Amino acid sequence: MNVLMLNGSPHRNGNTALALREMEAIFAQQGVTTEILHIGGQDIRSCIACGGCAKTGRCVFEDAVNAAALKFAACDGLVVASPVYYAGANPTLTAFLTRLFYSTSFDKTMKVGAAVVCARRGGLSATFDELNKFFTISGMPVASSQYWNSIHGRLPGEAAQDAEGLQTMRTLARNMTFLMKSIALGKEAYGLPETEPRQSTHFIR
Fold first, then answer.
1. Of 15, 61, 68, 104, which has the maximum CB count within 10 A?
2. What DSSP character marks residue 142?
3. How far apart are CA 194 and CA 112, in angstroms?
């Protein structure tokens, strides 16, 4: 089992990273390997809807998105973590995720996804909902914890004082591990769910 973890904060060692490290320790105990990619501080442009990825299988912009796509294809689970910006995720991270999910054609079905959010005070649940939509449009089961996957802190390191938030991260890592292992056993015994030809409609036909 291996999990790809995306730090959407521009601060490599801030509170968002602290939450990921809390999960990483539990994953290690469970025999799950991890890799953290620091996305929030990179120069990531947004999707321009050019359609180039449909022809080449990769985004036309050569940056962290294409490098991460190979790791995403190989992982069993994806953790996406972000600080809260005006009750939403870091725009650099959402630009990255939009291009990552849209430009990759490999089957994401049954890869486990988990969103983690960090804030001084509010906007956590709205950001949590925003990030989960990347998983649920892609057939990815969403891992949950004992509470919404959130932690509080403003100054670097303050999240270490959030005992409930840290416990939420540890519980999330354990639940995610169980879900990934259960899905692996289910695939081996039963295969993936049956799929139908895609019906794609819009409101004028």
1. 15
2. B
3. 18
Q: What is the pTM of this model?
A: 0.95
Label residue 23 by pLDDT band (50, 70, 90): very high
How far is the C-alpha of 82 from the C-alpha of 15, rounded, in Å?
10
Confidence bin at 202 (pLDDT 50/70/90): confident
Domain ranges of the chain: 2-190
Burial of 120 (0-12, 13-18, 19+ CB in 10 A): middle
Fold of 2-190: Rossmann fold (3.40.50)
For 97, the token pair is: 């995720």
Work out the average pLDDT over 119-134: 97
Per DSSP, the chain holds a count of helices (H) and strands (E) of: 6, 6
Number of other CB atoms surrounding residue 60 within 10 Å: 15
Q: Which residues contact 152 (CB under 8 A, 6 or more apart)?
A: 118, 119, 120, 121, 158, 159, 162, 165
Contacts 24+ apart (CB under 8 A), 24-29: 24/173, 25/170, 25/173, 26/169, 26/170, 26/173, 26/174, 26/177, 27/3, 27/173, 27/177
Give the tokens for residue 158. 């303050």
Handedness of CA 197, 129, 93, 170 (dihedral sign): negative
Contact 142, 176 (CB under 8 A): no
> Apex CA 127: angle with CA 121 and CA 129, to 5°?
130
Residues 82 and 163: their CA atoms lie apart, in Å, by 19
